[in-house]
Amino acid sequence: MSVGVEGEAVLRVGGAWVGLGKRAAARQLVVGRRRVVERPEVPARVISERLDRYLAGRVGRVAVMVEELGAGRSYRYHAGERMITASVAKVQILLGVLLRTRWKALPAGVRRDAERMIRYSDNHAADRLWERIGGVSGFDAVGRKFGLRDTRGVAGTCVDLYCWGITPTSVDDQVLLMGALVSKKGPLKEKDRARVLSLMGAVVDGQNWGVSAAACGGEGVVLKNGWLKRVSNKRWATASVGLIRSDGRDFALAVLSEGSPQVEYGIATVEGVAERVMRAFRNCPE
């Protein structure tokens, strides 16, 4: 099942796409031996109008993408926007470390840096791992390995850190990267993917906002968030990327935003957008 460009639900039957209309009824999916009653398809136009209404009263730019991995259902909003990663870039830095050296072979100090970088968003640990992968050239090589098109590292030092925090990216690239963490076809070995997911699933309290706001009770969440005050305009970039996981279903989600007056404002925007999009993909139990 997918969503057509004009907002109608469409279903692939054989080699053709068949429109189901704008009020497609609930359907049953067979997942393994389970029957799951899925939320009716919500037209892309309805989701976009919902976001337009919410964001009309807020400042800043926002882009979001959700993909139900393996199911062919996705939604994009302002996907052409390019915004900075802030600390979301730390996931790609860690992938660069693991592409060079398997987790089990990493020195203890590097493992500690990886944990602090993801779980605590430690910037100096990220700087050390940035150097370990070769800076911009190594970072961009990771992007090419995972098929990213819009994410390019920035050379040099920004204030007292390397400039990985102002990496331009797109929601498409971030969703692609999240999908690779659960794909057997990706370049990372299974145990190393599991390690990344484990770290992203253990982000410390106070930094586990964002994607988690869109999860139903009982669903698992792995995520990495970013927040950065831009020197040029004193406005905040806030971003959240991750996976919502339940009963064999994985939703990859990325929300990027720039232009918030305070970090708390940006977090509220990111969470409000994530929740409004995800409610279109499934019903949360009462």
Automatic annotation (TrEMBL):
<dbReference type="Pfam" id="PF13354">
    <property type="entry name" value="Beta-lactamase2"/>
</dbReference>
<dbReference type="GO" id="GO:0016787">
    <property type="term" value="F:hydrolase activity"/>
</dbReference>
<protein>
    <submittedName>
        <fullName>Serine hydrolase</fullName>
    </submittedName>
</protein>
<dbReference type="InterPro" id="IPR000871">
    <property type="entry name" value="Beta-lactam_class-A"/>
</dbReference>
<dbReference type="InterPro" id="IPR012338">
    <property type="entry name" value="Beta-lactam/transpept-like"/>
</dbReference>
<dbReference type="InterPro" id="IPR045155">
    <property type="entry name" value="Beta-lactam_cat"/>
</dbReference>
<keyword id="KW-0378">Hydrolase</keyword>
<feature type="domain" description="Beta-lactamase class A catalytic">
    <location>
        <begin position="114"/>
        <end position="256"/>
    </location>
</feature>
